[in-house]
UniProtKB/TrEMBL annotation:
Cofactor: Mg(2+); Mn(2+)
Superkingdom of the source species: Bacteria
Membership in a protein family: Belongs to the ApbE family.
MF terms in GO: metal ion binding; transferase activity
Keyword Nucleus among UniProt keywords: no
Keywords: FAD, Flavoprotein, Lipoprotein, Magnesium, Metal-binding, Transferase
PANTHER family in the record: FAD:PROTEIN FMN TRANSFERASE, THIAMINE BIOSYNTHESIS LIPOPROTEIN APBE
The record's free-text note on cofactor binding: Magnesium. Can also use manganese.
Name used for this protein in its record: FAD:protein FMN transferase
Positions bound to Mg(2+): G163, D277, T281
Amino acid sequence: MLLMSSEAATLPDETNRISLNGPTMGSHWYVTYFDGPADSDPLLAALQAAVDAVDDQMSLWKPDSALNRLNSAPVGEWMPVPPQMFTVLDSALQVGRASGGAFDIAVGDLVSAWGFGPEPSNPSRIEALLRGSKPKPAHSVLELDPKTRSARKLAPARFDLGGIAKGFGTDELVRTAARFGVKALTCGIDGDLRCVGTRPDGQPWPVGIEVPDYDSRGIHSVVELEDCAIATSGDYRHWVDIQGQRFSHTMSARVGGPVSGALCSVTVLAETCMMADAWATVFLVLGEEAGRTLAKAKGIKAMFLTRQ
């Protein structure tokens, strides 16, 4: 995952530094800036409202979320979708096609069966999913209509936006702060982070990339960013223990379960956190060799860490 920039290096003019944070999506969000509104309370409220809106729309944990309404909608029935979620769904399908199905939001059943949703892990459900035929990828079973901003399922499917929603939420933090006149900041949610502008001394924002270790937190390396988003997907922060074996939260529709192998962390740079988040998931699902090949073909900057 990524560490807040203040943990990666000492920032200048600490007396002028303003840090805001709050809960979201089972984790927390934060925004750090040095030049902005004198009264930060309205900005804090707006930032919390922005991530709350994303969570309300795209959470598997909230029964009345727009995502869960789509999941429970009958096959073939058009359902209106909120603008933000429509953007995320459209982007998810684009990355799904571009990655040959490695990024697939139609893994909601897998997410729930393995215990990464509201329900605990269900071994019998896992076995049934493994024995059954592989589901069709989301980009072949979900249709979007941009004119009416609606969506419909072409086949039974349960969608999960865990591989892209936090990135989008981070981008929403940037857009919200900009409305309040904040021109330079660093912000993030969990393993997704975005840097805008520079620090007060004109230097880039330092971002620490964690050592992929289950039991401790340390910095593997530091990158300095300006007007750039960065996201890390890994197997070492969110996992379940089943009969003494750890299983990652990242699902591969191709294998019908959690990703596994030597590759344990992928960090991606992109213009938006939504895209960095999605492509980091793609490469973790593909594995080191195929992931590196696709990253090179797409011109995507990525760092792959393997567990020796």
